[in-house]
Design a protein that fits this description.
single chain; 304 residues; mainly alpha
């Protein structure tokens, strides 16, 4: 099996230097409206990142084993490791990431691990490090089709790391807008700020990894509005800097909703697959409900 370097580990010094540079830049007068860094929040994010790296030694072994099993026994084609196959896998991986990311917002089972990344009420480069401790053990299923069609497992893992590395720099308020042509094609700080917003109009939008074109193609794109400043965090914030709680509080809440009270087996299972906010008795509100209410209020105000 070909071996590619673990670029995430090599990038750690770059992450540290970049965060220090951002911290310095955002203390300038022109960035006074940004929330910047909060010590406890930043250290919580870093702790989540370190936990993700340590657990990654186990989860990546499971992922690699699964990819190799499919590639060696069930692949339909064999895609060679060549310059053109890296172009193919770039688009294949990015499309896989889009659907993984979108489903992680629309299905509570996947949201239980992904919510970690959205739990900070700040938006800076340390937020990029706030990664799941549980998602790596099952979210890879969105990439299982790739070894099936013939992409080599080592190529897949490399491209997944490239995508994750790209997404580090977009977690900042220090960059307002990139050139128009770049904003039209790629995921940028502006696009990703929207994704981290708890404002109703921004909920569950801009799921892109590297290319924003998927959101535009599948109807989930929302530009950052000059008159709607992004409010970072969750609709209901967890308000804790405890890494254990950050990692597992949504798992606890999900299972509590499943097993508490009197409800049918069907409704219990629906708590796994329905979107965050859904309630079996109709009292809950999902992101589309909140967005519709926001639009109705905005239209009413504009008509006055």
């Amino acid at each position: 099996m070909p071996e590619f370097p673990n670029i995430i580990h090599f990038a750690i010094p770059i992450f540290i230097v970049s965060m220090l540079l951002e911290l310095f830049v955002t203390t300038r007068e022109k960035f006074k409206e940004t929330k910047g860094y909060e010590t406890k929040d930043a250290f919580a994010s870093i702790a989540m990142g370190l936990g993700n790296v340590f657990l990654g030694f186990l989860s990546k072994a499971i992922v690699l084993w699964s990819f190799v099993l499919i590639y060696e026994n069930f692949r339909i084609f064999t895609i060679p490791i060549a310059w053109w196959s890296f172009i193919l896998i770039f688009f294949a991986d990015d499309l896989s990431y889009y659907w993984f990311h979108r489903i992680s917002h629309e299905c509570r089972l996947f949201w239980a691990s992904h919510v970690v990344h959205h739990s900070s009420q700040h938006y800076n480069l340390s937020t990029a490090l706030r990664q799941t401790w549980s998602g790596g053990f099952y979210s890879f299923i969105f990439w299982l089709w790739m070894p099936l069609v013939g992409f080599h497992p080592a190529m897949i893992l490399l491209q997944m790391s490239i995508s994750l590395l790209y997404q580090f720099w977009i977690h900042t308020e220090a960059i307002n807008k990139m050139p128009q042509w770049f904003e039209a094609i790629f995921n940028t700080p502006s696009h990703h700020r929207v994704h981290h917003g708890s404002n109703p109009i921004y909920l569950d939008r801009n799921h892109a990894g590297i290319l924003i074109i998927w959101d535009k193609l599948f109807g989930t794109f929302q530009p950052e509005l000059s008159d709607e400043k992004v409010t970072y965090g969750l609709v209901k914030n967890i308000n804790t800097f405890n890494p254990i709680k950050i990692a597992f509080i949504e798992w606890y809440n999900m299972f509590k909703d499943m097993f508490s009270g009197r409800k049918s087996l069907k409704n219990r299972l629906l708590y796994l697959v329905k979107p965050p906010g859904w309630k079996h008795d109709g009292t809950g509100k999902i992101s589309s409900d909140l967005r519709d209410e926001w639009k109705e209020t905005a239209n009413s105000n504009n008509s006055v």
